[in-house]
Amino acid sequence: MENDIRPWGQYWVLEDAPTHKVKRIRVNPGGRLSYQYHHHRSEVWTIVEGVGRITLDGEVKDYTVGEVVQIPQGVKHRIQNASDTPCVFIEVQHGTYFGEDDIVRIEDDYNRK
Fold first, then answer.
1. Which of 111, 82, 110, 102 is nearest to 42 (CA)?
2. Locate the Mannose-6-phosphate isomerase type II C-terminal domain: which residues (predicted)?
3. Which residues pair with 111 in a beta bridge?
4. Residue 77 sits in which domain range?
5. Hey, how many other C-beta atoms are within 10 angstroms of the C-beta on 54?
6. Residue 113 domain-assigned (yes or no)
7. Are strands 2-6 and 9-16 parallel, antiparallel or unpaired?
8. Rounded-to-integer distance, Cα 34 and Cα 110, Å
């Protein structure tokens, strides 16, 4: 199982197929992913632990365990953990390409491009 540590937490690739990719993503307390969008994929996030503060095209809402977020291709999005316990979600990507180079970062706390 592929594992990648990031400044905000880490993720594990659970499945990587030609039609989809599935990740388990943990956001550390105070961590925040970049505000980003994708050209080649849509995503569905399901919160499985903690609370995720999710921004979709500028609108911010807190999501709790069992709640699902649909992120259409091209929609700007980010998740932040504003709590003091980890936030974990399952990300299902679907589209035509699932490489990490399909991340277009608009804003990033860690100065990544």
1. 102
2. 5-108
3. none
4. 2-107
5. 22
6. no
7. antiparallel
8. 8
How many Cα atoms are found within 13 Å in the side-chain-facing hemisphere of 11?
17
CATH number for the domain harbouring residue 26: 2.60.120.10
User: Residue 93 is encoded by which pair of tokens?
Assistant: 């990507």
Residue corresponding to tokens 């679907």: 94
Tens-digit pLDDT profile for the chain (113 aa)?
789 999 999 999 999 999 999 999 999 999 999 999 999 999 999 999 999 999 999 999 999 999 999 999 999 999 999 999 999 999 999 999 999 999 999 999 999 87
Domain count, the chain: 1
pTM value > 0.70: yes
Local structure of 102: helix, strand or coil: helix
- CB atoms under 10 Å from CB of 52, counted, come to 26
C-beta atoms surrounding 89 within 10 Å: 25
Residue holding tokens 């989809």? 20
